[in-house]
Amino acid sequence: MMVIADHPITAKAHTNIALVKYWGKLDNQLIIPQNDSLSLTLDEFYTQTTVQFLPELSADEVIFDNERLSESASKRVRTFLDHVRQLAGINFHARVITKNFVPTAAGLASSASGFAALAGAASRAAGLNLNRRDLSRLARRGSGSATRSIFGGFAAWQQGQDDATSYAYPIDEQPTWDIAVVALVLNAKQKKISSRVGMRLAVETSPFYSAWIKASQADFETVKTAIQNEDFELLGHTSEQNAMRMHALTLSSDPNFTYFNADSIQAMNMVKELRLQGISCYFTMDAGPNVKIICQGADAERIRCYFQSSFGQDQVLVTRSGTGISISN
Questions:
Q1: What is the average per-residue pLDDT within 257-282?
Q2: Kindly report the CA angle at 240 between 237 and 193, in degrees rounded to 5?
């Protein structure tokens, strides 16, 4: 028999950087993607969330970065909690207190760490004791990329065809090779076109969408092989190409749009200049203007200094492989 926790449950989950992107859904309600994807969990960016289901509450209370969210602003969280309540067979409302150590909705995958942490804390608080596969399935219902943040290091999201078969799994949770990411926070403001809207436009209107799916499936197998062989050049090159093909979908949608800004383009050109100088590094971008530079750890400090001279000290952060979700009773 499941028993609701009589005290708050806290979970911590890290964000991830997609090396092979998911961009578009087969099923919008279940958040089942059009293709497999693969990511690296990052240690510097994370969300910490505390949940308790309480009989005295008449509605869910969601406190985000010390501010209580309105009913409209907390809709996604409340919908997610409804799913947890259904799974657990309870009807209590919850108090959710969450703190983001990631710039929200700016292309640094804050929803990944956010819904992974919420899945971990809410499920345990509701009396569910899920294994990591089922946690990844649950997290997926809040945000697709959250399914991968259950795991550390390199993780993949299996497309699947239904709720039972679409989940993430680890590839290498504790990579021993020297890989780092230099994150450029070029704009921490909420983006004007959400990932959900951008994906829908691409699926429905881009004439290149089917080619993107085919190329991404090939990229997925290539990056898996690169990880197994610790082939940095192959991993970096394929990840960069995959990112640019994804962003080509935004430019070919109707109406067309882009997540790039002037700083994004400058940063990408600076990465190419570093390569001409003999420094092995590659860029990737999710749905936002921020650029992430994949590099070898030995070069991370030099790359950080190079970009700080153009964008400032606070905008350039070095991170490495992070751990999977942790849940404390």
A1: 97
A2: 170
